[in-house]
Amino acid sequence: MPSPQAQSNFSSLVHRWLDISTINDAGSKLRSIMEARLDVAVEKGCHAVEPDNIDGYSNNNGLGLTAQDQLVYNRFLADAAHDRGLAIALKNDLDQVDDLVK
């Protein structure tokens, strides 16, 4: 089992790249990871994607995400999917539907 320090370092690293509030930051790891995943969907011949757990702002996640952070991230996902000719489904964030379609 890793030491408590190693576990803490890993947890900090994971939280940094999972932090959707950084999606528009230069060099965002999360942006490149999600774009690569969408590229794989295209390569596999998918017509659409359905991201899950896109309601992080409404959960106790330790990142202090806001509803605005979530909207920015969801719009990024939609734009990135559409740029690749993919449809995208919305799941788990129905509270923001009205804001997303504006």
**Tell me about the biggest sheet?**
2 strands, parallel
Q: What helical percentage do the residues reach? A: 40-55%
Question: What overall form do the CA principal axes indicate?
Answer: globular
- Helical/strand content category: mainly alpha
Number of helices: 4
What is the H/E string? HHEHEH
Q: How big a fraction of the residues is strand?
A: under 5%
Number of strands: 2
Taking pLDDT < 50 over at least 5 consecutive residues as the criterion, the unreliable ranges are none
Average pLDDT reading: 82
User: N-to-C terminal Cα separation, in Å?
Assistant: 49 Å
Radius of gyration: 15 Å
The neighbouring-strand order within the major sheet is 1-2
Task: List strands and helices in order, with pairings.
Layout: H1 4-18, H2 29-43, E1 48-49, H3 67-83, E2 87-88, H4 97-100
Parallel strand pairs: 1-2
Please supply descriptive tags for the structure shown above.
single chain, 102 residues, mainly alpha, two-stranded parallel sheet, 4 helices, 50% helix, 4% strand, globular
